[in-house]
Amino acid sequence: MSGKEKLNGFFVVWTILSAFGEQLDDGCGHSVLGPESGVLSSKNYPGTYPNNTWCEWKIRVPEGNSLVLRFGDLDMEARDCQSDYVKVLKGVYGGEHVYGTFCGSLKSYPREVHTDSNEVIVQFRSGRHISGRGFLFSYSSGDHRDLLTCLDKGSHFSDLKYRKYCPAGCKAVAGDISGDISQGYRHTSVLCKAAIHAGVILDELGGWVSVETHKGLSHYRATRANGIQSKDGSLSEALFTFLTNDCKNQSVLQHVSVSASSWGEAMGRQSDWVPNSSQADPGSRGCTWAADQNDSLQWLQLDLGEKKRITGIITTGSTMLDYHYYVRSFKIVHKERSRWRTYTQNNSTQYMIFEGNQDSLHQTRNTFHNPIIARYLRIIPQTWHQRIVMRVELLGCTQLRGTHPNPNPHLRATHPNPNPHLRATHPNPNPHLRATHPN
């Protein structure tokens, strides 16, 4: 028996031998067990779940809370719940109270399971079968009503404004998004992955999202942000944006000066890539830089002239087809009083390594959770392709509005005129028994 621990929960996997003596695989799929919410799924989801497997998870939220589980999908071949099933039990191992045993499809069950405990055990068993996606569900403490799953889309909701709770762990769950924070997201995009892409929530924590629906666009451009790639999207009748109250005048911050550990030529044109070149004159938006050396001691420093609220960063590579230079990952340090501090996220003691670019042509955006309050900021490349070359833009507020740790300070509705003719695509759901939406 082997055990693995993730955040505030853990799961246990048994690998067994059948009567025929073959070694069987385990049935544990993607799982993120967060302190207040999370996601569980069968192995290979949304592909076919494996034969003859067993997996058990133990979920715990803080004492004084109850657990709510919400199915996003259930597709298991057996309908008698003997050979293939998902079972939810109360509390400790060997608990006799069963909240529910599930198999077949969601047509036969409510989508939500409400418990009276802060601790449950989830068991998954599979026998021999031909097809079936298995299962995927999310959970949260009872304080978080309006719980979403990672499969819920904007098109599943008819209200022009609504507030929902996204579980931790949706980033790695299959589901497409089209669009970006700057223009909004196509209504067919999965909500919680879009919220991570927009920088509204952290994947490892989840959280509340406030959503507003607007008239759609003729095209949605693909962008990469916070480790998620959105896709090009076609004409749609509706789109959605995420609402916050903080930093409504978010923009690309202007710097007054730049410096670097070294600089050199890129594509034979040194003047375009030296930090104090015309591309980086005071008052310009962003900065271009090619380091003369290629090692992790190199850095690029931007001076914003005064302390500002820095909420994110956009990076690009060389942008030249014949010169595939770009930074794959980097860390951020900022000057606080007279000391340089390496950026950490969510009160972690480990410094944050940000995902850079995946090619030399396209932008990548990263959100700072929490925002950085600083005048001086340095970007320190950690890995790169061929050589260190970057184009950098900082996002944030031109005026400080306090330093409270709001994780989504720079987001706002970008389309203030909602379409008054949007019609409901689904009937108003019963809060205890909800219809299953197609993928």
From TrEMBL:
**Key word Membrane present:** yes
Can you say where in the cell this protein is located?
A: Membrane
User: What are the start and end residues of every segment in region (Disordered)?
Assistant: 403-439
Q: Which UniProt keywords apply?
A: Disulfide bond, Membrane, Phosphoprotein, Signal, Transmembrane, Transmembrane helix
Q: Which GO terms describe its cellular component?
A: plasma membrane
Looking at the record, the residues that make up the CUB domain are: 28-142
Q: List the lineage, top down.
A: Eukaryota, Metazoa, Chordata, Craniata, Vertebrata
Q: Which GO terms describe its molecular function?
A: signaling receptor activity
Q: Which residues form a coiled coil?
A: none
Quote the protein name from its UniProt record: Discoidin, CUB and LCCL domain containing 1
In what residue span(s) does the LCCL domain sit? 144-240
Membrane topology according to the record: Single-pass type I membrane protein
